[in-house]
Amino acid sequence: MPVLCLLLVLSSLVGCADPRYWVDVVGPNNVIRARVSVEIANTPEQRTLGLMYRHTLAEDAGMLFVFKAPARVSFWMKNTLIPLDIIFADADGKIIGIVRNAEPLSERWLSVDGLSKYVLEVNAGFCARHGIVPGDRLEFAGFKPEAQS
Predict the structure, then answer these.
(1) Confidence band of 8 (pLDDT split at 50, 70, 90)
(2) What element of type H or E holds 61?
């Protein structure tokens, strides 16, 4: 009987495990500047909620927003409690701009020039700590992000 209970517990834990997705931020000469464990926001509902209401974000974690087509996108920090760096990338993953140290709870719209297909939110200061700059690129480790709806 104890073995059966253990198997049930283990199977329930495995069934609840969230898949991990990794995004590498790559600089010149294919040097990986940082690896980020990401949650993917690829539906309208997920993109709307984003990182709102969270009190913490692990140092190597972030949220990857995926859009159906490249567009000029804007973000705000309403209901977002932690300061963020917001990295905007085109359809090829090339970083076209960064909003650094976005102010928590602000309703000011934040964007960069150009069309973005991907936006990566990470803790404020992450880009400075890792030397991430426009022209670097996002590479998706073992998955292809697709927008839904």
Answers:
(1) very low
(2) strand 61-71
